Amino acid sequence: MAIILSRGNDTKKLEKKSIELEDKLQNFLSSNPEIIPIDDIKPGAKMIILAREFPVKVGAIDILGVDKDREIYILETKLDKNATKREVVAQILEYGAYLFYSYTSDEFIEKLKSHIREKDDTTLEDKLSLLDIEDEEKEDFIEIMKDSFNNKAYKFFIVMDKVPEEIKNVITFLNEISKIDIYAVELEYYEDESTSYQIIIPKLIGLIPKKEYVKTARARVWNEDTFLDIIEKEEVDDEEMINIIKQLLEFAKKYSSSFLWGSPTVYPRFQFYYKKKPKKHRCLFNVRHYGPSSNTIYFYGLNSDLINSLNKIGFNIPGGHEKEISLKIFKEKVKISDFIKVIKEYIEKNKL
């Protein structure tokens, strides 16, 4: 394939060129992540690059990214001349497996933060600004990234100058029969020497419409209807627990300064924010539903005053910044009305 550049009567033909070094391919991708056509998979989605050469037990992931749904992207760059045709797919899947088995979710985030500081001289939080994440939402965004990590909500991309038929066939086969999200991106490369312009044309391989039919429940879009649907009809058969969850939901809807539902890629949850200062909202807690017998409340930013107030009404929270507690506590020790009173008094005292 050739590209014809035209300006008036002046035309120029550019022939496709080869990319000589994998580092060049990786550098270009790191500087221009939008070249990965994830919009073809998730309309309106945007991915940012978090890290390069991120270490796992069997090597290093070329590029690690994330999108606004907190899905984690694992990208492997290969030149056709260097690729071992039948091993490249296995290699990227191995990286995904060993990402999960190399770290716990907390260790993953801490390693990611230190890797970004060391390699890029910046912070994970600063990188998240590229996704237009507000400062007050970054803490919660990172927590849901941990959920994506634990749920293996990974998307795999093999990025090459030319994708061999053998790799195309394996990727298409995997996407048709499994829940793995694996794609290839073929990059056609051109140069205009007179202007020093580089032209890159990406082609996505592996998009299978049929894949929509095998998505799991965690891929739902969570809102009040879908949340209550799974709570009432599919999971929780304890009427008292359903009532506790509904009371917390109503309280959050009424008093949260910026009420949010969880990401589609993880379990159902809703978040309670309070306005700490003008245009700044801070997540105080969220309610999480893991399954029929596992429903929890997860506190963020606990300080000694709030811990003392919660402990006085029946909680048993040690010192610490975060804490996850089973909602069974509202059946056994703590009155919902007392909890609501404590939270209302806390946010009234701490808002500026």
Name a few traits of the molecule.
352 residues; alpha+beta; Trna Endonuclease, Chain: A, domain 1; 2 domains; six-stranded mixed sheet; 11 helices; 13 strands; 28% strand
Topology diagram in text:
Blueprint: E1 2-7, E2 10-15, H1 22-31, E3 47-56, E4 59-67, E5 72-78, H2 88-102, H3 105-120, H4 124-128, H5 135-150, E6 154-160, H6 165-177, E7 181-192, E8 197-205, H7 224-235, H8 239-255, E9 260-261, E10 269-277, E11 280-291, E12 294-299, H9 304-312, E13 323-326, H10 329-332, H11 336-350
Helix pairs in contact: 3-5
How would you describe what is shown here?
The protein is an alpha+beta fold. The protein folds into 2 domains: 2-214, Trna Endonuclease, Chain: A, domain 1; 217-350, Aspartate Aminotransferase, domain 1, CATH 3.90.1150. The protein has helices spanning 22-31, 88-102, 105-120, 124-128, 135-150, 165-177, 224-235, 239-255, 304-312, 329-332, 336-350; strands at residues 2-7, 10-15, 47-56, 59-67, 72-78, 154-160, 181-192, 197-205, 260-261, 269-277, 280-291, 294-299, 323-326. A 6-stranded mixed sheet has the order 3-4-5-6-7-8, sandwiched between helices. It has a 5-stranded antiparallel sheet with strand order 9-10-11-12-13, sandwiched between helices. Residues 210-218 have low confidence and may be disordered.
